[in-house]
Design a protein that fits this description.
Elements: E1 5-6, H1 17-23, H2 25-28, H3 42-59, E2 66-69, H4 72-86, E3 93-97, H5 102-112, E4 117-121, H6 131-137, E5 142-146, H7 160-169, E6 173-177, E7 196-200, E8 211-215, H8 230-233, H9 241-279, E9 283-285, E10 296-301, H10 306-315, E11 318-319, H11 335-339, H12 344-347, E12 350-354, H13 361-380, H14 383-390
Length: about 400
């Protein structure tokens, strides 16, 4: 196979050419520092303000509640660490889930070493947070609940509106990592009772290295990066003007095409899932069957190693992953798959394929046919599979 079939859009997406076009003048024509007082910098200041308004409108927020960051990981770190610092006098208890991105989990572990207590709530077999368990975890000293909008590995969409209401009813701040969801699902911060929301441009055909954190007006959240008065004195450092402009264009395009794009992706996803589940034996679909991101298909194949499957798919020009791009290279099975109850030996056989509107049904057929060939070849070499079939 000479062509490349890219099916790892949860890791990153292709930057839209229209986004690149919008960014280019801010490298060579409008390159002034937005913090400078002279007129030459005015276009940069205006561009940043316009993008802030675009993003705020997409969330039902105010422009002054949007703070630009270097991406989702920074936004998650800022939301959790700065909240913990600002509200430590009220309490030192945080609630999150066991399937969060490592940007959240590792930040919580960092805080645990500094005197905070964190409750990690279980999820069911489909990856949906157990809301009753979350309710029971609330204490008088709970200051923050952080639950992702949709899981980056298995695609399950969480009951964010219900969790947000619980947080609001109990006077607890609510943060959601919406890196996989923003631009793909309609989100209104007031409707979902969201106090802080993280996002990253490269998940919706924008450039890498730029994100934002929504912070509701009135929160005491502290500054995260010191050294300048940028972002209303909360995040020092010269603004990434080309990145911000690119993000704004990506948001405009995503919001205008959301319904059509989701329908196309859902059709490809369901076709892919249908063929794999019907034609490959001993396979499990991970995540909720319908309450999932429109582009996500995550499978667990018994009796094989997912890493071998990925390498052989790559040899055929097919790009997929075994889970989060941030943990590639790790020999440990996915913490998400373990949390939904998969045993280690099955979790090791996972494959995540995430489509985009650029993909075609013909590509899905090529991918499924190649998966069938590779899985059969790997199982034919597996003593575990041989023993299993002998005992049937």
């Amino acid at each position: 196979m000479n062509q490349t079939i890219y099916l790892d859009n949860a890791a990153t997406t292709k930057t839209d050419p229209r986004v690149v076009e919008a960014m280019l003048p801010y490298f060579t024509e409008h390159y002034g520092n937005p913090s400078s007082v002279y007129e030459f910098s005015t276009p940069c200041k205006q561009a940043i303000g316009a993008v802030r308004e675009t993003i705020a409108k997409s969330l039902g927020a105010k422009p002054g509640e949007i703070y630009f960051t270097a991406g989702g990981t920074e936004s998650d770190n800022w939301a959790i660490k700065a909240t913990a610092e600002a509200y430590a006098s009220k309490g030192k208890h945080i609630i999150t889930s066991k399937i969060e991105h490592h940007a959240v989990l590792h930040t919580c572990e960092y805080l645990e070493k500094r005197g905070f207590e964190v409750t990690y709530v279980d999820v069911d077999e489909n990856g949906i947070v157990k809301v009753d368990e979350l309710k029971r975890a609330i204490r008088p000293d709970t200051i923050l609940i952080s639950v992702m909008f949709a899981n980056n590995e298995i695609g399950t969409i969480e009951p964010i509106k219900e969790i947000g209401q619980i947080a609001k009813d109990n006077g607890i701040l609510f943060h959601t990592d919406a890196v996989q969801a923003y631009g793909h699902l309609p989100i209104h911060v007031d409707e979902y009772h969201i106090d802080m929301l993280s996002s990253s441009a490269h998940k919706l055909n924008g450039p890498k290295g730029i994100g934002f954190l929504y912070i509701r007006t009135g929160l005491k959240t502290r500054s995260f990066i010191h050294g300048g008065a940028q972002e209303r004195k909360r995040r020092g450092g010269t603004e990434n003007v080309p990145g911000i402009v690119g993000y704004g264009k990506a948001v405009e395009l995503a919001m205008a095409s959301m319904e059509e794009r989701e329908e196309k992706e859902r059709g490809l996803r369901d076709y892919l899932i249908g063929r794999v589940m019907a034609e490959v034996p001993f396979v499990r679909l991970n995540g909720h069957r319908s309450q999932r991101l429109s582009n996500n298909a995550n499978f667990a194949f018994q009796f094989i190693e997912g890493e071998s499957l990925l390498i052989m798919l790559d040899g055929s020009g097919i790009c997929g992953s075994s889970g989060s791009a941030c943990t590639s290279g790790s020999l440990d099975p996915s913490h998400v798959l373990l949390a939904i109850g998969l045993p280690h030996e099955i979790a090791h056989g996972s494959l995540r394929l995430t489509v985009s509107p650029d993909n075609t049904r013909e590509e899905m057929d090529l991918v499924v046919d190649r998966i069938k060939e590779i899985v059969k070849k790997l199982r034919d070499m597996s003593p575990l599979y041989e023993d299993f079939m002998r005992n049937q």
